[in-house]
Specification:
two-stranded antiparallel ribbon; transmembrane; Tetraspanin_animals; Tetraspanin_CS; mainly alpha; Tetraspanin; Tetraspanin/Peripherin
Length: about 240
């Protein structure tokens, strides 16, 4: 143990922050796996209509989160071990990884803010394409497939239609929407467009809050790592 006094205090604070960072990586990994296997999103994103798969942008984002969570756990362990061992090499590697992760997080945050409505918009367009076929008065194979797609949307989200309720949809509404009790449940009669936007907005808020907390931790970790590296370099034992 070469560092003493305030430097030793910073060493243990850095170890504690790295442990929190490691835990945060585990939380992100767990949240990403939950988002991947969430019953609502999975049932919607596994749908197929006329050979087209439901948009997979959300799943791609989740896979990126899984990778980030795993990398954070590795980097957090590296920082903990480097702080306890007072290794400039490990701490330097840890600092470099933190800078790269922080830059990636900022870039991902900007991309996510710009494209925050992309996932819900893609699914709404997919829903509308099935909706048009399902209200077709002519009974065809395509209409039957579209009706099954809409039934999954309506059962999963507890919604019914786009909110406009045109006469063609009203004619087939009883078979496409969940069974309703009287009086009509306002949740079930709600527009599927609104439900889809709310579904992904809630999940984006969870991801955004987690990213903000982690960014703050990373900033303090970078500061403490630089201070500790300087203290180790100036310590008489080294």
């Amino acid at each position: 143990m070469a560092v003493t006094g305030c430097s030793q205090c910073i060493k243990y604070m850095l170890f504690f922050l790295n442990f929190i960072f490691w835990l945060a990586g585990g939380v992100i990994l767990g949240v990403a796996l939950w988002l991947r296997h969430d019953s609502q999103t999975s049932s919607l994103l596994m749908l197929q209509f006329e050979g087209n798969q439901a948009p997979g942008t959300f799943h791609i984002s989740v896979y990126v989160l899984i990778a980030i969570g795993a990398i954070m756990m590795f980097v957090g362990f590296l920082g903990c071990y480097g702080a306890i061992q007072e290794s400039q090499c490990l701490l330097g590697t840890f600092f470099t990884c933190l800078v790269i992760l922080f830059a990636c997080e900022v870039a991902a945050g900007i991309w996510g803010f710009i494209n925050r409505d992309t996932i819900s918009t893609e699914l709404i367009n997919f829903y509308d394409s099935a909706y048009i076929k399902a209200v077709d008065p002519v009974d065809t194979t395509s209409r039957q497939a579209a009706s099954k797609v809409l039934e999954v949307f309506h059962d999963t989200l507890e919604c019914c239609g786009k909110g406009d309720d045109n006469p063609l949809f009203t004619a087939v509404q009883a078979s496409l929407c969940p069974k309703r009790t009287m009086p009509i449940d306002p949740l079930i009669s709600q527009s599927c467009h609104t439900k889809l936007r709310d579904l992904f907005t809630e999940k984006l808020h969870v991801i955004g809050l987690a990213a903000l907390v982690i960014a703050v931790i990373m900033v303090f970790e970078m500061i403490f790592t630089m201070v500790l590296c300087c203290a180790i370099r100036n310590a008489p034992a080294y």
